[in-house]
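[Solved] Which block belongs to which protein?

Original post:
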Amino acid sequence: MNSIFIAELIGTMILVLLGNGVVANVVLNKTKGNGSGWIVITTGWAFAVFAGVLVAGPYSGAHLNPAVTLGLAMVHLTPWSAVPAYIAGQMVGGIIGQSFGWLMYKDHFDQTEGDMDKLACFCTAPAIRNVSLNFLSELLGTFILVFAVFYITNAEVLSDGALKGTTIGLGSVGALPVAIIVWVVGLCLGGTTGYAINPARDLAPRMVHAFLHTLGLIKGKSDWGYAWIPVIAPMVGAAIAAWLFMAL
């Protein structure tokens, strides 16, 4: 279980550092990428997933997301006994990754006035606050992610001829399908809530924001009134995906 915890910690740390890093690069004042837009954010997040999966994949399967862990456990692809190690690693990794991201961009946080712009570099918030539709948005986005993950196979080719029966692995390309799914979810469904689709990606950085606010190092509230949606809705979406997959 230690290898699962460490792999999920490192993978999620990379995911959050890069993913919220691209948000900071686009949103915060006086960065090189300021104002570069949604395409940059969704692309950055997609390849943040690629980087995290690439590193953690050989050791834990690279869930990097409690909703993915729940879905895989429900379809018996992950033992329930391993779930606590997965989620603990994801949460700790999210906290560490966000802490590094805040420190790296600290000068730019200090140059930015908008509290919501700063919060966006930590966690998600709805473009239009509507509890029912915000919940549905996160549920559907996570459903698509988890349901698609069930159908991803290893990137391997079985050779014919003299090497018949030999597996030729495509290595890091195996991490690419998950990144593409996250990319398309962000592009197509992410405009309403910012597509957390991952409780650890939202809750752990939000905790860092709240801690920094308590220390007086960052202004603005952490919006705990909304925080339950990007935690609960993805778990429900993953559960529905698992149920449908088993039914089919």
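(Second protein starts here: sequence line, then its structure tokens.)
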Amino acid sequence: MIDTLLSIVKPIDAPGSIPFLFLALAAGLVLRFGWRRTRAIGFAWLVGVVVLYLILAMPLVANGIASSLPGAALTATPNIGPLDTLVVFDGDNRRGRVHAAAELFGHLHPQAIWVLGREADWLRNELPNAGVPSGVIRMDQATGTTREQVAWVERYVGREPRLHLAIVVSRLQVPRVWGLLARGGIAVPLVGGPIDDEPPVGGARLLVPTYIALRVSRDALYEHVALAYYRHRGWIAQ
């Protein structure tokens, strides 16, 4: 049942996304103008959607949702020694992933950078603009999900157990990827790249709604739901 529900909901995206907003507003308009007996419900629904999005767009709320992810402390970049291969997972906050990968390359000069994901060509094209030589970049677009990306790493480590490897993801994705790696017994450093645009963390601006904060709320809520689903399927530990 939960699998069928998620297969329907996933294309709509999480609360905080534009597709979810359009769907919620459309439902409210139908209730408001479709039937006389549901007009009051429709009006209350529309007001509720607007208020919800204003709340999610507050940096204070966005930061709170993100920091409440399990294992949020793992998002700090670990100390990494020699590095032979760097793997970059495609996903949300791509610019932050590119920034983290380029910074690591500048310090440690790995021999290869693999980008994984069905839309990984964006990462491959953007990394040279961040200072990474195109000759060291490799790509695998057959890994369409986070689980497939982690499985790719597991196979790679199995073939090359002596290589020093690290993985770059979004800092919001770190808890889920870390759970998958731990479940598979894969011990590699995990680097949490920054969000493309970080919301304010102090001052009066914490209460001023912004689209940047709305995006963070959306991404963090998605990770909360994904973690719950992964636990339900037994893919990560409870």
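Accepted answer:
You had them paired correctly. Confirming on the second one: The chain has two domains: 2-70+206-233, 75-193.
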